[in-house]
């Protein structure tokens, strides 16, 4: 659906262009959430919003979206493998929120095309 599109490639390129936000990130036992936990939470929220905004999606379409979202989270884990368990910083949180909104927009575009 979206992971094999040019749009997805551009979004991944956007992530790689901003990898410096994730460099020198460390684990803080006092922090509430890890990078991976925030990615999973934000992706979940965006997918729920997407499905709520598109009530006419069928069961198979929703399952496809969920599988694709899982694949995207897996890709992010691979790209950020060295720091996914580190505590998320405020700058990373802002970026992850923006990134997941871009993913949602990519799904929106695919659904409505």
Sequence-ordered SSE layout with sheet pairings:
Layout: H1 6-17, H2 35-53, H3 59-79, H4 90-111
Helix pairs in contact: 1-4, 2-3, 2-4
Can you give a write-up of this model?
65% of the residues lie in helices and 0% in strands. It has helices at 6-17, 35-53, 59-79, 90-111. The longest helix is centred in the C-terminal third of the chain and has 22 residues, at 90-111.
Q: Uncertain runs with pLDDT below 50, 5 residues or more?
A: none
Question: What is the mean pLDDT?
Answer: 92
Helical run tally? 4
Biggest sheet descriptor: none
The structure class reads: mainly alpha
Query: What Rg do the Cα atoms give?
Result: 14 Å
Q: Order of SSEs, N→C?
A: HHHH
Determine the N-to-C terminus distance. Answer: 11 Å
Compute the number of strand runs. Answer: 0
β-strand percent reads: under 5%
Quaternary status:
single chain
- Percent helix range: 55-70%
Global shape? globular
Which short descriptors sum up this protein?
113 residues, mainly alpha, 4 helices, single chain
Quick overview of this protein structure:
The protein is mainly α and 113 residues long. The chain is 65% helix and 0% strand.
């Amino acid at each position: 659906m979206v992971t094999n599109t040019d749009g997805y490639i551009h979004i991944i390129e956007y992530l790689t262009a901003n990898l410096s936000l994730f460099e020198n990130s460390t684990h803080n036992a006092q922090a509430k959430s890890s990078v991976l936990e925030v990615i999973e939470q934000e992706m979940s929220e965006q997918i729920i919003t997407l499905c709520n905004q598109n009530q006419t999606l069928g069961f198979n379409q929703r399952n496809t979206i969920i599988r694709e979202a899982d694949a995207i989270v897996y890709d992010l884990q691979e790209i950020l493998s060295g720091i996914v368990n580190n505590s998320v910083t405020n700058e990373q949180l802002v970026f992850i929120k923006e990134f997941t909104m871009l993913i949602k927009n990519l799904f929106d575009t695919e659904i409505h095309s």
